[in-house]
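User: Now give one protein:

AI:
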Amino acid sequence: MVSIATKMRSIFCKNAGTSARAALAPTWKCYATSSANPAFVEDLNFVPPTDIASSDDIQKLQDFVHHSKRLLVITGAGLSTESGLPDYRSVKSPSGKDRPVIGPVMYQDFVKSAHIRQGNWARNYVGWPRFSSHVPNVSHQTLVQWERLGKLHWLVTQNVDDLHRKAGSKKMTELHGSAFRAVCLSCKHVVPRSELQQVILDMNPHWEAVPFEIRPDADVALTQEQIQGFRAPSCRKCGGPLKPDMVYFGECVPKDTVELVFHKLEESDRVLVAGASLQVYSAYRFALAAHKQNKPVAILNIGP
């Protein structure tokens, strides 16, 4: 099995100097040295089975990146599977069992229903310690190196896991927001998600639950019985309901965000899609626009 991170490493090694190649030599099962300088990690638990990539395919992808001077990269959940996070569309868990089908929280339901907010925040609270502890893998670090070398013009990620930022990416748009922030639905005050964990604990000193499934957006699976008695946090400024600062299903990506990405696409000469199925229109529209602009598009992904 050749994972996305392995392919990213191969591509990078052709497009960088000797020192960069040495820096990206295989370094497995390492730990973060600091929040600003994470080491490489490799966790194959959530990497879906795949055929071995041919040397010809890897060569074509290397050539695609090599000939770009202003590359725009779109990433999805598949890029973070080697950091120990599941993607959205694989059907098997690390144990080989079928993963339970968990419907997404719809934006309108979250806004209108205190019960939905209670369940969402309960699952988020339980999942946060593990979710927030994940560190970048070699794919995230490769994109940082491309940025520093001037190869990467702009990065657009659908992921909310903050791993690109942890790796050091600067020229980046978080298309779907970030799980590392929360926003008040009433006054729009933004609070770091890390500060809320102790607040929620103080509100629920005797409540606890053990999840039976993790998801790539700080969510986990809990039963309705487990959620009972949980108190969701509210805005300390106005008392309004808080929402993780992510784009939920049924919610629109902010217009200024979309316009910025289209502007960066206009400035770019090629598009690389990595770890994304493009089944969500919010990202697919940029690949479609690139095609209409006669810009080459390459897709690096496991699965359809």
